[in-house]
Fold this protein.
Amino acid sequence: MAQEGEEVAVEQNLALEQFFAGADLLIHDAQYTQEEYSSRINWGHTSIEYAIGAANRAGVKQLALFHHDPDRTDVQLDEFAQEYCQSGKYGETEIFLAREGMIIDL
């Protein structure tokens, strides 16, 4: 998905949200924070916050955030997990960070 602020994105994003509405699992790009994203528009990635909002709007049950910025450390990713993966903090969707080798049971 493209970020809301990108010109062509609004209609495309609505169509995508309709496509994954009610999904058991959505695996979504989350390369940047919203603050970082503002200087990276049109780079082809989205923010963590946008992915969470899209999943909640679409009634997705589980959201796996992946494609983390390669410059992030494991410590930073652990901090993101503490912030963004708290049950109920960002709506009904269960949020987790995808990790190499992770197995997800549906």
Helices lie at 9-19, 34-37, 48-57, 74-84. The longest helix spans residues 9-19. The chain has a mean pLDDT of 88. The chain has one domain: 9-97.
